[in-house]
Design a protein that fits this description.
alpha/beta; about 20% strand
Length: about 170
């Protein structure tokens, strides 16, 4: 196993060279506990791809008071975090996504690390999730909602999960 790990580490750039050439990849992180989207972004660019967007969903997304504030600010009728996730996903299909998403960022529901000018051309998304200690409600209401929306839109979804070393011991 260690020989394989060493081989991959030594040949990383050769192995991924141009594998994402011409691809515009989005990144959505469903946890703010640890941000590893910079590593994902670097891997995408190392493979000669481009990052369409990098958005972190924060815990404020599930806060009922923040959802009410969002409704008031944008004249919406969202009730649950699932509704908010659907709203975010629909924003990413519109030309004025930044204007709409900034309101969620002001309310600390999301963090926008990056939104490119050509985010509409995104064909695949890396969904960075949390560890297995997070609740199954989060998976059902947030992660699965994102996956379903992306599949509806014909986008490829790649899931990643950071496992903390302590959870393996």
């Amino acid at each position: 196993m260690q020989k394989i790990v060493n081989y991959l580490n030594e040949n990383y750039l050769v192995l991924i060279k141009d594998q994402l050439q011409g691809k515009n990849v989005g990144i959505i992180s469903t946890t703010e506990n640890y941000d590893y989207t910079q590593d994902i972004s670097k891997t995408i660019t190392d493979a000669n791809g481009s990052v369409a967007y990098d958005i972190i969903l924060k815990s404020g997304l599930t806060n009922k008071d923040k959802i009410k504030e969002l409704n008031s600010a944008l004249q919406l009728q969202l009730k649950t975090e699932k509704d908010v996730v659907n709203y975010i996903m629909s924003c990413l299909k519109e030309e004025n996504a930044m204007d709409k998403l900034q309101q969620l960022e002001k309310l600390e529901m999301i963090k926008i690390n990056y939104l490119s000018d050509n985010y509409l051309d995104c064909s695949q998304v890396v969904m960075a999730s949390g560890d297995t200690n997070e609740s199954s409600d989060k998976f059902t209401n947030i992660d699965k909602t994102i996956i379903d929306k992306l599949k509806e839109d014909g986008k490829y979804v790649i899931g990643t999960q950071k496992v903390m070393l302590n959870s393996l011991i």
